[in-house]
Amino acid sequence: IVGNGMAAAKLVENISTRALGRYAIAVIGEEPRLAYNRVLLSSVLADDVDIADTELKPARWWKDRGVTLLYGQAAVSVDRSIRRVKLASGATLPYSKLVFATGSRPILLPIEGRDLKGVMTFRDMRDVAALKKAGRCNAVVIGGGLLGLEAAWGLAKAGAKVTLVHLMDR
Question: Is the distance from CB of 56 to CB of 98 less than 8 angstroms?
Answer without folding.
Answer: no
